[in-house]
Structure formats: structure tokens, C-alpha cells
Design a protein that fits this description.
The structure is a homodimer. Chain A has about 350 residues and is an alpha/beta fold. The first copy, chain A, folds into three domains: about 45 residues, no CATH class; about 140 residues, 3-Layer(aba) Sandwich (Rossmann fold), CATH 3.40.50; about 130 residues, Response regulator (Rossmann fold). The first copy, chain A, is about 40% helix and about 15% strand. In chain A, the strands form two sheets. A six-stranded parallel sheet of chain A has the order 2-1-3-4-5-11. The first copy, chain A, has a six-stranded mixed sheet with strand order 7-6-8-9-10-12, sandwiched between helices. In chain A, strand 1, helix 5 and strand 2 form a beta-alpha-beta unit. The longest helix of chain A is centred in the last third of the chain and has 18 residues. The radius of gyration of chain A is 26 Å and the shape is elongated. The interface between A and B is large, with 46 and 47 residues. Chain A binds a DNA duplex (30 and 30 nucleotides) through helix 2 and helix 4.
DNA sequence: AAAAATAGAACAAACGGTTGCGCTGATTTT
DNA sequence: AAAATCAGCGCAACCGTTTGTTCTATTTTT
């Protein structure tokens, strides 16, 4: 097993050139003669020479790797997001290191530290549903590791982030339900820590006020996204004296659980009770009783944009510190998708 | 921005020790005095010293990173598999680099090359559904990068692999259908390139023969896993003079499409026609008309086992080449899960 | 023909850490 | 008291590549 990979030194030895000459030859440096250049290149090709990336990473203090931290990959939202990240990374010849927090703050911290130590050049993050403290990300600034958040973003002005504009989608969703004749619209919201949860409620109230529909706070319940809590939330809604005729749920997975609960309660979906949610999962197409509509949040586009910003930051780093360093804060418009059926 | 990370050199300078002393002190080398050791460790802690991984990777010619190549992450099967890989990697303090082939052979090759250049220490692979040629993986041997395949594995004796034992699951599935009274059992199989496709048919025939049920080859159709082809396959089956009363599909996604088609054809699921498939996706639980049963293939366990083998190989590499180098070939037993409903 | 300019290549340092070996002064052995 | 031992630390090489500087012919200029 002659497992030794060819190095510049090896090429230099065979051709009786110096290592530096070989290096420059391969880089088409002007101070290398044509003959030499040809010889070097040919031998390099013969030997299948590939620069040792670990040496380069070390030398350049760059790893050409971006880290991605997100709650999990099993939600299709995030696996689609990965595609957006990968695509941009590939264009820039970067690799992607992925870590799942599984919505656990400690794991999130641990991964962030591991990625710092691995010397990733930058980080794309969608925070866990319980994260309230962002120190483990903020501290990366000391190491010049830029961080761009997407989808689940911290509620801080001093970070780069790309998120869905829940406002628009929520507005469309509620108006859609009102148009369909619904007046008692329930909401199964996410944990209060999540920025999107607050925004959803604000928009919900705004729309109802404008349409002069009385707001009933008992119609607003929360779930931590687990099935158990969603069932509880549904029970609370259905046990009301005047239960809602339509429910807005924080995402499609919650909607699925909610629908399941409604069916167990012998309710006719889309007749006794209708659902609208967020995410627009492909799986919806296979359901017998899907939500009436979903707010598409374009995970691919969000993640892609976040990654593009990250690469901008890599370059901006070289630019002398502008005093007023701008923080990117992009909103991707959601879009209500009405499911035909 | 004092972005300079602390180095051994920095610690040595401040304490007026040599770099080597500092290095050894941090590693509890016996030839370093207690006083010195304490001083060094304290300052290291104060400065938040962390060894520069890129330097270590370079020096040790190891990246402590394993590469994973799989068709895609949006199939829950694979995102669960990732968890198995991550868990084992974490125990061994390894990072995980992920690449999706999107079932495209060229992308698969490209990723394999990129990972080789990144100097991953080893590779976990589930091949694309069209891959017939394995040179891009075999050639990694030259670079001493071990490869372990899982789930979708090459049909070669000279590779390490972990796969599902389709035999058992398929047998259970068909016998289950026969017990339910079905005599005309259709199969929507995968592309012939896939090893599992062949095995499925063999078992199918064996079971039918044993049960003395006549084999009708027109009941066996194939799909490339796309919806279009699955619909075509379904059409072929349903247009038969004596269409099947039950269908075995290669996986749950195909089953979903097949069920959708059957419903469009006004067939009553689980009455006019029943389905059994492979994978046992969680989503099944939300369906109104799920397959009767699914063969669970334990992606987490498969991937975990594959990764454990990979780490074994890392160590085995140091052992002098045994002439008879064994190739791992693990089969994980599938298990038919009958969906209650 | 001597001086200046230039092309083409070599030298050497640097990135940060590990490690075999050698050095020094103190302690123990004979 | 001289010799041997040893604890404790420094020196230097090395991993592969890049790059600023220097060197050496050769060519061009005057």
C-alpha cells in the first residue's frame, strides 16, 4: 500500500526544482518559465496531485467550511433549507458541517463550541425552540466567526438574520378564513419564547379588529410542538362553550396532530372545523383531510439568502470596520397556499 | 478587535517557558514539574486557550471528520440515519460532513472527490438509486479512506456494508397478506439496479411457491420511485384482467402515490385493494388510508452500525495487514409492523 | 566592454502543535 | 568527593503550502 499522497516536495524532488517553484508553477506565477511550468503541471497530473487541504486550512487559517446548526433534519422544512445552504456553499467551493440541536439548548451550545474549535469560517443557525440566551453565538464574534440566523431567529437587533414575514402570511390566512365565513378563529400558537409566536398573535388581533370581530383570548392556546401538548391545546379549544370553527396552527406538524384530535372527537374536518397552518409540507398532498391552506415559508429561499449573506460577510470582513456596521435583517414574504381538493 | 486566538507560543511567551514545555504541561506529560504545570494550565484557562484544530489536523494527517453521502435528507429514512451517524461520531469526537447526491451519479462522484480532498477520515455511503459503477468509492482505498455502505449498498462482496434483510421482512409481509386471504398480490418494485429489488422478487416468488400460489409475472411492475412512474405502474396493475387485491410497494413514499392513484380510481383502500410497504414512516400515522403494514428497516440502527464499523476500521488500519481482510457484511433484520386502525 | 536590467529559480520563514533528543543543575549513589 | 542518576526543561525538526526576499545567470543598455 503506497498510500503516500503526492506532495509538492515529491514533485520538486523528481524534477529537481525547489518546492516554491513547483508551487508557483501550479499557480501560473509569472516568474516561472514556460518549460518549467509545463513539466511541473504534467507531472502533477500524472501523480494525481491534489493540494493537501489540511495544510491549506492551517496555513490560511480558513477551513472553507460553514457550520449549520438547526433543530433537526427530520422536519422537511429544515432538510429543504439544507439544500439552499448546500447550493450556495457549492458555488463558493465550501463544505457544510451539520449539527442538530434536537431543540435542546445544551446540545446547541455544545455544537456551537465544537464548530468554533473546528474553525468553521461561519455559521448558519436556526435556534432551538427554547433558546432565549444567545451568548454562545454572540461570543463567536471574538473569534471572527460570523453568524447568520434563519427562520427561528433571535429577537435581537444586533444579529444578522433572515426570517419569514409572518405578518403577511398570517394576515392572508386569517382573511381567508373570514372570507370563508368564519368568525370564531382559534390559534394554536408556539412557545412564547419564539419570536414568531408573538408576531402571529399581533397580526391575528390586528386583522380581527379591522374586520370588527370581537377578540376572545380563550381562543388562543399554545403548544410546545409536541403531540401531547397539541392535544391538550385542542381539548381546551373544543371544550369551550363556543368552540372555534377554524383554527390557525403554528405549523403543519401541529396541524396534523390537531386534525387527528379533531377527528377522534368526531368532528368533520373542513366542515365542522377547518384548519390553516404554516409550512406547506409536501406530505399535505397525501392527506385525506388536509388543512384548507398553508402559509408557505420558502425554507430553501430563506436558507439560501442567509448563506449568501454569510459569504458577503466573509468578504466584508476585509473592509475596514465601518463604524456603522449594518446588520442584515431580511424578511421573506410568506404566501398563503390554498389546497385544492 | 483583538481577534488573535491564544496559541501555545503566546502562553510560552508570557510565562517564559518554551512552547514544548507548555504543550507537554497541558498534556500532563510526566517530565514537567508540578509548579510549571499548574501555571501553564491556569494561564491557558484564563486565555481560553483551545488547540488550533486545523494545526492538529494538519500535523496528524487526520481531520476527525467523517463524510456522509446519501441520496437526500428529505426522506425521513435518511434523516433518521443521520442521527445514528451523528451519535456514534459524537462519542468518538468526530464531526460529520454531509453531502446529498440527490440520486444523481455525477453529484455523487463529485461529492466523493470533494470529500477525499477535504481529507475526511472515512465515509458512510448510501448510494444513489442509479449507481452501478463504484469506482469513485473503490478508488478511495488508495488514499486509505475506508468506506462503509448502508441501506443502499453495492452488490459487491469486497466492500463493507450494512443493509436491511429484505428477505425476512418481505417474507413476513407476503405471508401476512396471504393470511388475510389475498391470492393475487402485486409488487411495485424499484429499479433493477437496486440490489434490494432483486431480492424482493426472489423472496416473493419463494413464498408464493411454498404456499402453492401461482406466480403471475404481470403482477410485478417497477417504478423509479417518481410519482409519474408509480402512477404508470399502478395503471398497469389495475388494468389487468384480474388486478391484484393487494400490493407490496418498495417504500412508503411509493405506497403513498400508489394509494393516491387507487383512490382516484375509486377503489376503497384496505377493502378493494390493500397495501403493504417498507420503511414505516411516522407520517403513516396521520393518514386516513395508510398501508396495512410496513416493514420497518431501522435506519437509525443501520447507520449506527455502519458508523461503528467505520471506527473499527480506523483502528484496524493500524493492525498489520492480515492477509484475509474481512469485509463486514451486516444484515439488520426487518420487522413487519402492522398498523392498527 | 562594463554596467544595468531582467527573467527564472532558490532560500527561508511562517502557520501551531507534537515529540525525540539533548542539555543542565541538583540529588543520589558508591 | 567523584560518578551516576534523574527531574525538569529547551532545542529543533516536522507536517505541506504559500510568499517575500534573495540569488544567479543571461540579456539589454550605454
Amino acid at each position: 500500500m503506497d498510500n503516500k499522497l503526492p506532495t509538492l516536495k515529491e514533485i520538486a524532488r523528481r524534477l529537481k526544482f525547489s518546492v516554491s517553484t513547483v508551487s508557483r508553477a501550479l499557480h501560473d506565477h509569472p516568474s516561472i518559465g514556460l518549460r518549467t511550468k509545463m513539466q511541473v503541471k504534467q507531472l502533477a497530473k500524472e501523480l494525481n496531485y491534489e493540494p493537501n487541504q489540511t495544510a491549506l486550512f492551517f496555513k490560511q487559517q480558513k477551513t472553507h467550511t460553514i457550520g449549520v446548526i438547526l433543530p433537526n433534519l427530520k422536519e422537511e422544512f429544515f432538510s429543504q433549507a439544507i439544500n439552499g445552504i448546500e447550493d450556495v456553499a457549492k458555488i463558493n467551493k465550501y463544505s457544510v458541517l451539520i449539527g442538530q440541536s434536537h431543540d435542546d439548548i445544551d446540545q446547541e451550545k455544545q455544537i456551537a463550541i465544537a464548530m468554533k474549535n473546528q474553525r468553521v469560517d461561519g455559521l448558519i443557525v436556526s435556534i432551538s425552540k427554547h433558546t432565549k440566551n444567545y451568548d454562545h453565538f454572540i461570543s463567536l464574534r471574538k473569534y471572527n466567526i460570523p453568524v447568520v440566523f434563519f427562520d427561528r431567529v433571535p429577537d435581537l437587533p444586533t444579529v444578522h438574520k433572515v426570517a419569514s414575514n409572518f405578518n403577511t402570511g398570517t394576515k392572508q390566512a386569517i382573511e381567508f378564513l373570514i372570507t370563508k365565513g368564519h368568525r370564531r378563529i382559534g390559534v394554536i400558537n408556539g412557545p412564547e419564547e419564539m419570536k414568531s409566536s408573538k408576531e402571529r398573535i399581533i397580526t391575528y388581533m390586528e386583522v380581527l379588529q379591522k374586520k370588527r370581530i370581537k377578540i376572545d383570548l380563550s381562543l388562543i392556546v399554545t403548544t410546545d410542538l409536541t403531540q401531547v401538548k397539541t392535544f391538550e391545546a385542542m381539548k381546551n379549544l373544543l371544550d369551550l362553550k363556543y368552540p372555534p370553527t377554524a383554527i390557525l396552527t403554528i405549523n403543519d406538524y401541529v396541524a396534523l396532530d390537531a386534525i387527528q384530535y379533531a377527528r377522534k372527537s368526531k368532528l368533520k374536518i373542513n366542515k365542522d372545523i377547518s384548519f390553516v397552518s404554516y409550512a406547506n409540507l409536501p406530505i399535505i398532498n397525501y392527506l385525506e383531510f388536509p388543512p384548507l391552506a398553508s402559509v408557505e415559508q420558502y425554507p430553501y429561499e430563506q436558507a439560501k439568502k442567509a448563506t449568501e449573506i454569510l459569504f458577503d460577510l466573509f468578504n466584508a470582513d476585509n473592509i475596514p470596520d465601518e463604524e456603522e456596521k449594518k446588520y442584515h435583517n431580511i424578511l421573506i414574504e410568506g404566501q398563503l397556499i390554498i389546497h385544492k381538493k
